[in-house]
Specification:
Layout: H1 6-21, E1 29-30, E2 33-34, H2 46-49, H3 57-62, H4 65-77, H5 87-92, H6 111-116, H7 131-153, H8 158-167, H9 169-179, H10 190-207, H11 213-216, E3 280-291, E4 301-307, E5 311-313, E6 316-318, E7 323-331, E8 334-338, E9 345-348, E10 358-359, E11 368-376
Antiparallel strand pairs: 1-2, 3-4, 3-11, 4-7, 5-6, 7-8, 8-10, 9-11
Helix pairs in contact: 1-10, 4-7, 7-8, 7-9, 8-9, 8-10
């Protein structure tokens, strides 16, 4: 399976510039596995990084968020981590496309693999183009690869599972035998070696867009932009010496795993053990309110926030009544604010505790907001 368009390669490549620049700001996770970035150069990423993004592309994909929610449902039913919803973006950009090798659909399944997992593929019908059926089949593929790797190689690794989706389970199995059980330390073909990195990059950009806008220097979710614009804040410059190799701790026990979808007695409605992020040490909530009026808000505007509770973060204490500042970016009808602490301090919704921005109509003086303070395990 291959990444089908250079556009998505470019977008993902540029995102990895941002990942490298945010090392000190926050941790990065893939399927619950912490991926630390160290100080040395990750030379294998440079081919991805030095490409030009196609403006507006990410915004087009973002408009397919309803499809992401459907994928989330299938992933939950089959016991797979939520992060795999981004795999379809890397594969096809949520388009029914056909590769030169014959892979097709949103999930770029080969004919033989699709048939193996229950899809009809013939001259008249190709269910790889059916979003629901192909999504369920892709979940079966991923679950099967995970369990196969776990059984044969005694390692529980979602990174290896994702790589197997690109490389094939047989090829990945041979690579594990020859090179060990850590995807990030393997010497693989260029496409497979970059594959998991690309999924992680898309995840970061979609879930925490405000943390990366200043590094692009413009709002890449704005389809009206045709060329880069210098932001009001000083963009961080890329220094090749800052790039580092990536490593991930993988588990060799028989812990959590997805349901065996090849089992004829499998009941898709049964309860699946939820994913638990053990990397979070503690979470606290701090109330605050917007200070000032922002009727003329533009991207990268500075926003003042007055604390209503004391804030303790990074061993620094700020008492209630003090103002902290953030930089705002507009995505659709919401404003996302970067408070300068990465994922350690974000604005969340009161009701669902989700990090999904503030409605622009709610960006007004005295409007109350909630901040989540997260302490991660080292």
């Amino acid at each position: 399976m291959q990444l089908k368009t250079s556009i998505y390669r470019s977008a993902i490549g540029c995102c990895f510039i941002l990942l490298s620049l945010q090392v000190s700001a926050h941790d990065i996770y893939f399927c619950g596995e912490r991926i630390p970035l160290n100080e040395r150069v990750a030379k294998k990423l440079m081919d991805i990084i030095k490409k030009q993004i196609n403006y507006g592309t990410v915004n087009i994909i973002k408009k397919r968020e309803s499809d992401l929610k459907v994928i989330e449902m299938y992933l939950e039913k089959t016991g797979l981590p939520d992060d795999f919803k981004y795999l379809a973006i890397v594969e096809s950009g949520f388009k029914n496309v056909v590769s030169s090798a014959g892979a097709a659909g949103y999930w770029q399944l080969m004919p033989a693999t699709a048939r193996q997992y229950g899809l009809i593929v013939n001259e008249l019908i190709d269910e790889r183009n059916d979003f629901h059926r192909s999504t369920h089949a892709a979940c079966k593929v991923l679950a099967g690869y995970y369990l196969e790797i776990q059984k044969k190689h005694r390692v529980s690794s979602w990174a290896l599972t994702a790589a197997a989706y690109n490389f094939g389970s047989g090829n990945m199995g041979q690579a594990i035998k020859n090179q060990g059980k850590n995807y990030f330390e393997m010497d693989l073909n260029k496409e497979t070696a970059e594959y998991v990195y690309k999924i992680i990059a898309v995840k970061e950009l979609f879930e925490y867009p405000e943390l990366y806008m200043k590094d692009f220097g413009y709002n890449l979710f704005n389809t009206k932009i045709t060329s880069p614009q210098k932001s009001k804040t000083d963009a961080i410059k890329t220094d090749n010496s800052d790039f580092g190799t990536m490593s991930v701790k993988v588990s060799t026990d028989d812990g959590y795993h997805p349901a065996d979808l090849s089992d004829k007695n499998y009941n898709s409605k049964k309860t699946v053990k939820p994913q638990v992020n053990s990397n979070v040490k503690s979470e606290k909530y701090v109330f605050a309110h917007i200070t000032g009026n922002y009727d003329n808000f533009t991207d990268s505007s500075e926003i003042n926030i007055t604390l209503e509770d004391p804030l303790l973060i990074n061993n620094s204490f700020t008492n209630a009544g003090n103002i902290i500042k953030g930089i705002g970016w507009k995505i659709d009808d919401k404003i996302f604010i970067d408070l300068g602490y990465g994922k350690k301090l974000i604005i969340i919704d009161y009701d669902n505790k989700k990090h999904d921005g503030i409605l622009q109509s709610g960006l007004k003086d005295k409007a109350r907001i909630c901040l989540k303070v997260t302490e991660f395990r080292s």
